[in-house]
Input
Amino acid sequence: MWKGLYLVGPVGTGKTHLLAAMYHALHPKVPCAFLHSSALFRTLTPPPQYAQQLANRYRVLCLDEIELDDAANEARLILTLKALEKRGVILLATSNVEPERFLSAAFGGDRFRRFLNEEFRSHYKVVLIGGDDYRKRLPKTGRAWIGDPLQTEAHLQAAYESAPTPKRRLTFNELLVASTETEHTRLVEQLASPDYLFLSDIEITSTDDALRLLRLIDDLYLQPQPPTLYFSARKAPDEWFVAETARQGLEQGIAEKFKRTVSRLHALCQIEEVSL
Output
């Protein structure tokens, strides 16, 4: 008998919408919790106690966007899933990554590798959700210009000058510095406070750059009223940090996760290539 459902597939194929539909179909008749995976990763409560707290209130856990960029988070996830299973809580989850591709499937301890490579599919029904990225078809409020820096800068400057206040403009280097000097939640609040946000010359040169931008864009995207975003870059977002060319381990995990960030940028901005 299945102990849960694991929806996996590319970004933008509607997995979260399906999970939300299942939640609304069950709740409140069946007590359900709907959590983003970050809530599980950020808690300081040990996995057995965290699982018990959930089991005391819910029969089903809807866990959205399970990710694989941190081995410690994966260990917490696996221990929590095992504890929930013992307590009879059903798991409904979404992810962009098949369980066998988690970092711990290759580099974790024996029990983590065995769970992901051998036991996971016998416990949870894994369903592939395919299709095209729906976010690319959404109406856009922002704009982005790709190409020669002088040309893209001119477009960004013109848009900045014509935008009403409140607005804020940062170079990508200034954004990276701010991400090291300002606590993340506070920085997101600061970036989300103006109606218009302008970022110039985005260029990913390291895994750290990708991770910092990923966290900021993803959290801005999830704001109830995100700012209208304008940005410039030499390359299109799809070329910034490509999973197919990333090395294994942490870099590969972040590159896979970065696909969702690129998808969200396509949802926020109409992207235009500028020619000389």
Summary: The longest strand covers residues 60-66. Residues 4-128 form a domain with the Rossmann fold fold (CATH 3.40.50.300).
